[in-house]
Amino acid sequence: MYPLRRNRRLRANAAIRSLVRENHMSANDFLVPLFVVEGSGRKEEIPSMPNYYRYSLDLLKEEVKSLWAMGLKSVLVFVKVPDNLKDNAGTEALNDDGLMQRAVKTIKDVCPDMLVMTDVALDPYSNYGHDGIVEHGKIINDDTAELLAEMSVSHAEAGADFVAPSDMMDGRIGIIREALEDEGFTDTGIMSYSAKYASGFYGPFRDALDSAPVDAQDIPKDKKTYQMDFANSIEALRETEMDIDEGADIVMVKPGMPYLDIVRAVKQEFDVPVAVYQVSGEYAMLKAAAAQGWLDHDQVMLESLMAFKRAGADIIASYFAKDVVSLLK
Ligand code: PBG
Questions:
Q1: Which residues of the chain have pLDDT under 70?
Q2: Closest ligand 1 atom to Cα of 202
Q3: Phi, psi of 244, deg, nearest 5
Q4: Is 130:222 a contact under the CB 8 Å cutoff?
Q5: Per-residue DSSP letters for 33-67?
Q6: What single string gives the DSSP state of each residue in 120-132?
Q7: In testing the pocket of ligand 1, which one of 202, 210, 211, 222 has its CB within 8 Å of the most ligand atoms?
Q8: Domain spans of the chain, in order of start
Q9: How far apart, in whole angstroms, are the C-alpha atoms of residue 144 and residue 231?
Q10: What pLDDT sits at residue 266?
Q11: Quick one: which of 254, 247, 242, 244 has its CA closest to 198?
């Protein structure tokens, strides 16, 4: 007891602090989200995500090479689909020559060892902005899951290492796993968005992909019938357990910072790698406050990311991946 024990001895200088530090961060922890658009020579800043861009395939090559050079070895790919290709049947999602499929091939071409994960959900392809097929004001579960399985096979054929279903349909992990097995993609992994909440923090992402639910009659205005209620935590364990039983290799909690309790609970309960997604709204919030001079950018970036490590996350998907790796160098 005090005065024999003085906890401040272990904080007295940088050397001792680094010696007793419990958690560490490096490029190995990060999964880099990438936004891809059609066209060439395009590098478009997303207005609600300062310093984050959508790339056309030619410029994506340079971006991927620079990530690799920084030690960032895993990417999570999202595509912005032209309006005229959107429908309520996911037609374009199954196009073997679609933007996602070409993006995967492009990345593997310039950087064969880059781990490529693809987003699997209908929202970027949906004229209604929903993650599944909409009928009579409802998001149809089973037909959507079948479609997502076909989509996953198409991504695997293009060369994806992992598919990442972000849709929250029931049973889709098992259906996807079986489809991959049937088609011989036994080595293609599944990172499941297992505990994904219906969150206001996805706003900037929906701007980036122009994928927000549309405001029309008989179209649900939010995703609350499939994404989770933010008041719940036990339900997150039930969702995660089902996904693991169905064949998920990695599970994910999303969003990140407001859901650290869920990250911790999932990590404690299960023995598969746990990913967390620091989503677009979390990024936007910190960037905006830093731009105002109200918060110190680097300090809050590091702090927010280390919180995920402390909570027990094994993998962090973050729009800060490049910034933080540069800072750590
Ligand atoms: C779509 C998807 C979303 C995000 C990842 N995949 C948005 C949503 O569910 O509406 C959000 C990511 C972010 O906000 O950074 N299935």
A1: none
A2: 14
A3: -65, -45
A4: no
A5: EEEEESSSS-EEEETTEEEEEEEEHHHHHHHHHHH
A6: E-SGGGBTT--SS
A7: 202
A8: 23-328
A9: 26
A10: 98
A11: 254
Beta strands in 169-266 (DSSP E): 189-196, 250-254
- Phi, psi (rounded to 5 degrees) for 23: -125, 145
For ligand 1, residues with CB inside 6 Å are 119, 121, 123, 131, 166-167, 202, 205-206, 223, 279-280
Which of 223, 254, 287, 322 is catalytic? The answer is: 254
Task: Give the span between the Cα atoms of 45 and 232, in whole angstroms.
Answer: 35
pLDDT value, residue 144: 98
Classified as helix, coil or strand, 212 is: coil
Specify whether 254 is catalytic: yes
Distance 269 CA to ligand 1 centre (A): 25
What is the CA angle 54-58-61, rounded to 5? 85
pLDDT score for 178: 98
- State the pLDDT at residue 233: 98
* Residue type, position 180, single letter: L
- Residues 6 or more apart whose Cβ sits within 8 Å of residue 329: none
* CATH class for the domain made up of 23-328: alpha beta
pLDDT, residue 226, reads 98
Tokens representing 326 are 């540069």
* DSSP code, position 316: E
